[in-house]
Write the structure tokens for this entry.
Amino acid sequence: MIKRFGIEGGTGTGGQHLPFARAVEAGGWLMVSGQTPMKDGEVVEGGIIEQSRLAIQNCLDIMTDAGYGLADVVHVTVILTDARYFQSFNKVFKEVFGAHPPARICAVADLVVDCKVEVDVTCYKAPN
């Protein structure tokens, strides 16, 4: 069975409707869509530390709504817009995942949203 969370779509920059689920669960796996440092459809200004915390927190909020926690995170994908952000992002990452470090990939690329970071997570919890 596949369960979709947030299928009504979120709100992106400029009030744009986002036509994808916030997360999808199947067979104990939860795939959280990429999260940027946004609140109420607007990018929150700030440096890489502040933006990283918010992007990760947005993932954690979706995970919590779906019944998953930090210990369930098995993989994280990180996209930074500048390689110089790597060490600062790692500081935030360690603050959040220190006791439960997941596997991870971190890449540098342009983002379609004017921010410094995007994060997605994959979680697993054995089905009941």
Remarks:
- Strands lie at 2-5, 23-26, 29-35, 38-39, 42-43, 73-80, 103-108, 117-124.
